Amino acid sequence: MKNFWKTLKRPIAILAPMEEVTDLVFREIISTTAKPDVFFTEFTSADAIFSKGHDRIIKKLLFTKNQHPIVAQLWGSTPANYEKAAKFIVELGFDGIDINMGCPDRSVMRRNSGAALINDFKLAEEIINAVKKSTPEIPLSVKTRLGSDSKQTKEWLTFLLSQELSALSIHARTAQAMSKGTADWGEIGKTVKLRDSLKLDTLIIGNGDVIDYKDIVLKHKKYGIDGAMVGRGIFQNPWLFDKSENPVNHSKKDYLDLLIKHTRLFNEKWGKTKNFEIMKKFFKVYVKGFKGADDLRQRLMAAKNYIDVERIMHSVEW
User: Fold this and answer.
1) Active-site residues: which are they?
2) How far apart are CA 239 and CA 230, in angstroms?
3) Where are the domains of the chain?
């Protein structure tokens, strides 16, 4: 098996999978600012890949040559569908497959998927085995949480470690907590010690409230993690993965240039297939922290397409 995880220098910096955020376009933008060590796709349904909605779902599995190594993240509850989807993932040229066993969304959990699998070890194991059986040539990882309604670190994460995964990503909250409260990194540290006591080589990736690359290094030293995923932190700084000792303090112009670049690429790739409203969630990434930012953001939110955005931006003092 060609395992890219083993070739990466610690600590590994990863852009976390986020629905309607980490699409082809946003990943491409981040690949030009400060590229993470690993990219993940959006949350992709293994059950839907071969359904009538195939054309819509398949867009989540598009990537460019700049985005390697890239991992396809799957969710669902049917092992047979995972088996078929995993084979398809390999054919597309992905570097790895990840199974989502941590999504706390109620509609997902009602389908016995995402974080619901924390309470169904048998099904979780069947899904893992189905992917391993069909795609032994690329590494398999799992992204999960500390537990469902309460912390189940020892029971749940010991079970996942026993599955001989290449990597295990842990969001340091329970599913019930969602994104509320403070991420409990101490529990991730316990998982690292558990892994070491079992003499396993599964990489432990932490997730939750990571603010920048220096924070990843700090958590690597403090908790022994092999790396960390950054989710919401990327909204604060598109250059977050800059590993320089003294990262550049980017200007208003840098941010606004990136906004235009992102909007144009969004139109180029998705103009006829995605609602422009999806693009608007990114405006807060680029338009903030300077005089007149609130007014400009309000004007941009009224835009109907990228042409409106460019017209508005032409009126801004850079």
Assistant:
1) 103
2) 12
3) 4-235, 252-314
